[in-house]
Structure formats: C-alpha cells, structure tokens
Amino acid sequence: MNPTTTRPGAEHTDRPADVTASGRRRGGRSARSSGRPRSSEGRGYSALHHIILSIWALLVILPLLWTVYTSFKTSQEVLTDPFGLPAEPQLENYSRAWTEAKIGQYFANTLIVVGSALIIVMLLGAMCAYILARYRFPGNRTIYFGMVAGLTFPIFLAVVPLFFVLRNMGLLEGRMGLVGVTLSYVAFALPFTVFFLHSFFASLPEEIGEAAAIDGAGDFRTFFQVMLPMAKPGLASLAIFNFLGLWNQYLLPLVLNTDRRNYVLAQGLVNLQAQQGYKVDWGGMFASVVITVIPVIVVYVIFQRQLQGGVGPSTNK
After folding, report:
1. 0.90 cut: is pTM over it?
2. Cα–Cα distance measured from residue 273 to residue 260, given in angstroms and rounded to the nearest whole number
C-alpha cells in the first residue's frame, strides 16, 4: 500500500472536527461578545442602586445628625441659626429633660413595659408557632389563620373594647396600668410573632424531633433544648422587629395608659410639648428626642448581623 494514500473516510472524519473546532471558537467569541452588553448593563443598574441607596442614607442620617447637635443648643440659637453648630454645647439640656421634663421616669416606664412585653410575646409566640407547625390536631389551621387574620385587623378598632375590658379587670388605674399596657402590647405583637416563626419551625427536619424522642426527650425538653436553640437567628431578627414596633407604639398607651405616672416616652414627649405652651424649651425638646432614639440605635447596632443574616434554621449540630 502506498504510504501517502489516505484511508477511506479520513476526509469525512477530519472535516467535522475542523468544523466543530471552528464552531466552538465562533461560539466562544459570540458568548464573550454577547456577555459584554449584559455586564455593562449590570454595572449601570448597580451604579443606579448605589446612587438611590446613598440618597436614602443621606435622607435618614442628616436629620438624625441635625437633631443630635441641635440638642446641645440654646433655644435662641435654635431659632436664630437652626442649621448652625452650637457656640457652646449645652449639656444641661439633657439634665433638664431627664429631671424637669420627667423623661427619666417615662424612660423607666417604657423599659418596664417594652421589656416585659417582649419577653412574654417571644416566649408565647415561639411556643404557639411550634405547636401549630409541628403538631396536627383538629382546629390547627383555624387557629393559625385566626392569628394571620389578626395582622389585618386595624388596631384603632380594638382600642375602645380593649379599654373597657381592662377597666373591668382593674388594669387601668395606679401601677396596675403598666400591667394593662403590657398585656395589650403582647396581644398587639403576638399574631406577627406566630406568623413569622410558623414557617421557620415547619421547615425544620422531622428527623431532629425523632432523634430527640429516641434519646428520651419529652415535648417540653425537645422544644426548649433542641428546637428553640435552633431558632436563634429567627428569634433575634423577630426580637428586633418587635422591639421597634413596641418602643414606637403611641396609640395603645394614649388610650389605655391614662395615669400620668405611668406615661411612656411617646406620651411623655407629647405631654412635654403641650405643657410648655408658648415658652418652648427647644434644647430640652431635642434632648428628649435624642434620649428616646438612642435605645433603638443601640439595639440595631448590636443585633444588625442577626437582622442581615436571615432567618434560616441552624441545623449544623
């Protein structure tokens, strides 16, 4: 056989390979060329998002900074030069707001009410959500949808009946008024807590509960020692949401908290403005606002990682 003679079909096998290679090169070039507009478009959207978020951040931060440095001014400086820096920081604005305006007393009442309500609603909400998500019994879905329906019920429609219920129970007068406000806060935040945690507990694997039962754990021990620690990310995020909602609550204490000694911060600020009349102590007013805002900022700074980290269940162990 002549060594230069090609085998039959060799041409047919080489050509498709050449065509395939050239097609791959053309496909790679087309993919790279088609990817350029998408990448530039993505960069454009990213830049637009950053611009919008920067504008939003300025709209939030600048009024807060203005409130803080205005709290160190005298009333005359606030009226004559509202956007200028204080000539000399007036630290007595805070002492005057804390003592004379009774912001300290209102601050303590708010801590008692919000702290107690937060602990109760987190415990009851977690237990209720766990039972509704993990156990099947008659009326399970009815109770759950009733909780969800509570989110849509306008709160101003419930304050008047709630006022008469608490008055008949003796939870409006004296120091018992704080108990009535605390219970109303719990009722206000419980539907959202159950709704938030229900899907979380429902997503936990069944094998975890079965493994705890095999180890001899009962229902209470399974919940408190196994399920509840796994819910820490969700509980942390939910605690922040509930804290912000309860701390800024105004309508419920306005209607239900009638004793001046039991006023919370929201009522105290309104009462301070009403009492001053035409002789407004602007420095003390701004200092009172700063005292009211500080706990919210502190709580967010401490727990911002939990808030940004999501609420996925922790099943690593």
Report:
1. no
2. 15
